[in-house]
Amino acid sequence: VGYEMLHPFYATDLFKFSTVHGPDGGIVMPKTNASVNGVQNRHDDFCIAGFGAAYKIGIITDIGKNWFVQLDLKRGILNMPWIKISNNASDNASQIINFTECIMTVGYVF
């Protein structure tokens, strides 16, 4: 789930520039399709393994009435303390993933 706030700051007849920022968050439900140490008694169902949170900032350039270019930078964390790796209740794993991503989008609005 995410929330974005858009703030236009400069406009001409052909271009409009805006900043965008906002948080994202939610639960992480992986499907662990792996064998660990050769054990075939694996857990392949979707289950809640943890949560994730991120924050993004970006800039949007509107070109004319229909085209846009958006450049975003997102930084976040995934915390998964309850990863099930087999059908045995005592077999679990955990991991924390920090990430940074840069996203460029070119689009057309109908």
By DSSP, the count of extended strands is 5
How would you sum up the global shape? elongated
Q: What assembly state would you assign to the polypeptide chains in this entry?
A: single chain
- Proportion in β-strands: over 45%
SSE pattern: EEEEE
Describe this structure in words.
The protein has 110 residues and is mostly beta strands. Helix content is 0%, strand content 64%. The protein has no helices and five strands. It has a five-stranded antiparallel sheet, with no helix packed on it. The relative contact order is 0.24.
Question: Could you outline the blueprint of secondary structure elements for this entry?
Answer:
Blueprint: E1 5-11, E2 15-28, E3 50-63, E4 67-84, E5 92-108
Antiparallel strand pairs: 1-2, 2-3, 3-4, 4-5
What are the key terms here?
five-stranded antiparallel beta sheet; elongated; mainly beta; 110 residues
Task: Give a short overview.
This protein has 110 residues and is mainly beta. The chain has strands spanning 5-11, 15-28, 50-63, 67-84, 92-108.
